[in-house]
């Protein structure tokens, strides 16, 4: 895992699978803005500054879990497998993200691939 700050030209395109300008989409934008800068939004896709550190396959009831290093912290996105109830966590540090993560199966899977010093 890279502990360097994302480069100025590093950007992520993420489909959160919900319309961003709705009550369901606004929490994703708020969390991303707390650790990064939203560059653009269109329907369910958001572009923001950051670098993807981890993308899993199926873990628990998520078809993927993605962890991003952003200029001001970390953003974790869970893409639910059998519903549109995707969720995310933002934190200043990886410790903050892991502290807020309540799903032990996802936490265990991420800790297996993320540097132990960071958690």
Biggest sheet record: 4 strands, antiparallel
Mean pLDDT: 84
Mass-distribution shape: globular
Based on secondary structure, the structural category is: alpha+beta
Count of DSSP helices? Answer: 3
Low-confidence stretches: none
Q: Give the DSSP E fraction (strand runs of 2 or more residues).
A: 35-45%
Could you spell the SSE succession in H and E letters?
EHEEEEEEHH
Radius of gyration, rounded? 13 Å
Topology overview:
Layout (H helix, E strand, L loop, with lengths): L10 E5 L10 H10 L2 E5 L2 E5 L1 E5 L6 E9 L2 E8 L6 E5 L2 H7 L3 H10 L6
How would you characterize the overall build of this protein?
With 119 residues, this protein is α+β, with helices and mostly antiparallel strands. It has one domain (11-118). 23% of the residues lie in helices and 35% in strands. The protein has 3 helices and 7 strands. The chain has helices at residues 26-35, 94-100, 104-113; strands spanning 11-15, 38-42, 45-49, 51-55, 62-70, 73-80, 87-91. Strands 4-5-6-7 form a 4-stranded antiparallel β-sheet, sandwiched between helices. It has a 3-stranded antiparallel β-sheet with strand order 1-3-2, covered by helices on one side. The radius of gyration is 13 Å and the shape is globular.
Summarize the structure.
This protein is α+β, with helices and mostly antiparallel strands. Helices cover 23% and strands 35% of the residues.
């Amino acid at each position: 895992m890279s502990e360097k700050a994302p480069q100025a030209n590093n950007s992520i395109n993420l489909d959160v699978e919900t319309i961003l300008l709705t009550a369901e989409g606004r929490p994703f934008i708020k969390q991303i803005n707390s650790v990064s800068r939203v560059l653009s939004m269109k329907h369910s896709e958001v572009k923001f500054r950051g670098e993807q550190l981890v993308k899993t396959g199926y873990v628990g009831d998520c078809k993927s879990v993605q962890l991003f290093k952003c200029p001001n912290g970390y953003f974790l996105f869970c893409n639910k497998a059998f519903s549109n109830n995707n969720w995310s966590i933002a934190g200043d540090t990886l410790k903050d993200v892991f502290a807020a993560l309540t799903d032990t199966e996802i936490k265990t899977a991420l800790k297996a691939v993320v540097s132990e010093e960071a958690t």
